[in-house]
Amino acid sequence: MDEPELEKELEEVDAQIERLRRETAQMREEIGQSWDAPTDMMERSVLLTNVEQQEALIDDLLIRREQILRRMKG
After folding, report:
1. Residues 6+ away with beta carbon under 8 Å from 50
2. Tens-level pLDDT at each residue, the chain (74 residues)
3. Is 37 helix (H, G, I), strand (E, B) or coil?
4. How far apart are CA 63 and CA 49, in angstroms?
5. pTM value?
6. Which residues contact 60 (CB under 8 A, 6 or more apart)?
């Protein structure tokens, strides 16, 4: 992969990370706002699981980002 392709891939990864961080923050805010509301425990559990999955995706993308940066330097 040449430098322009790596730069494009890095931009795409950065955009995905930013999007997932915004979505995760929004989900956490929704959970926080409804924490004391009479919400179904199963629904809350699903929301928390979704947040954890999003955070795992972010971690994977951060690793991918570092790999791309290493390839660009090497």
Report:
1. 27
2. 899 999 999 999 999 999 999 999 998 888 777 666 656 778 878 888 999 999 999 999 999 999 999 999 97
3. coil
4. 21
5. 0.84
6. none
